[in-house]
Design brief:
Keywords: DNA-binding, Transcription, Transcription regulation. With 235 residues, the chain is α+β, with helices and mostly antiparallel strands. It is 43% helix and 23% strand. β1 and β2 form a beta hairpin.
Length: 235
């Protein structure tokens, strides 16, 4: 086995070992034993996978991360299976495009969308990494589900983008809704709310459409989404 293939084999082995645990955290020691590989090597691979969002590190060990949504293609993930009916209900009640958004490291990825009833509508590209800011979903994750790495978030975005987010942060925390009015895509407005699984925000739901049609309705859309998630036990 060549050095390059051995490296790939070990990285895949880390992912497969964590996947086999079926959601239970896998410690570094357990990974080392399963792969029969030096701890320092496994730790390096695991840190890289965490940085890219393919693993998440918890106090108990490693679990699969949201980065896998970027490579699953059309396969349905558990988050999509859990939320797609809620998306459809919100889309019916608002008439606009509803998208499931997950955080992956310092990015967000749109993993599922329910289309608008209108011919002129927002059609997001799926499984592409986008910067956290200034997306509505990214604002929501930063405000309501911050991570330790966010301590240096200001270094990663232009000052004007960061200042705009900080000016909105208190309102996002108070209302549970984040907005984007043409900041990412001109003439497109969006509202995002958090979907909670076991008390933690696992995804954001974004309701988006042409700005002239939706900007005055975004607060109302946020209320609809929060109510729908609460009724489904996901708020």
């Amino acid at each position: 086995m060549t050095h390059e293939h051995r490296t790939v084999h070990r990285i895949v082995g880390v992912l497969e070992a964590v996947a086999r645990a079926d959601g239970r955290p896998v410690s570094l020691s357990a990974l080392t034993n399963q792969l029969e590989t030096p701890k320092s090597t496994v730790h390096g691979f695991a840190r890289g996978l965490v940085a890219e969002g393919y693993l998440e590190e918890t106090p108990q060990g490693y679990v699969l991360g949201n980065g896998l949504h970027a490579v699953l293609g059309p396969a349905e993930s558990s988050v999509v299976l859990l939320l797609k009916d809620v998306c459809e209900e919100i889309a019916v009640r608002t008439g606009e495009t509803v998208t499931i958004v997950v955080r992956v490291a310092d990015s967000v990825i749109y993993v599922h969308t329910t289309p608008s009833v209108y011919e002129v509508c927002y059609v997001p590209k799926l499984r592409v990494r986008r910067p956290l800011l200034p997306t509505s979903g990214g604002k929501l994750f930063l405000a309501l589900a911050p991570r330790q790495s966010d301590a240096t978030i200001a270094e990663r975005f232009p000052a004007e983008v960061m200042d705009a987010y900080l000016a909105e942060r208190e309102a996002i925390v108070a209302s549970g809704v984040a907005y984007n009015r043409g900041e990412t895509v001109p003439e497109v407005g969006a509202a995002a709310v958090g979907a909670r699984i076991e008390g933690k925000i696992a995804a954001a739901l974004s309701i988006a459409g042409p700005g002239p049609r939706v900007n005055d309705k975004l607060e109302y859309f946020g209320e609809i989404a929060l109510t729908t998630l609460a009724d489904a036990g996901l708020a």
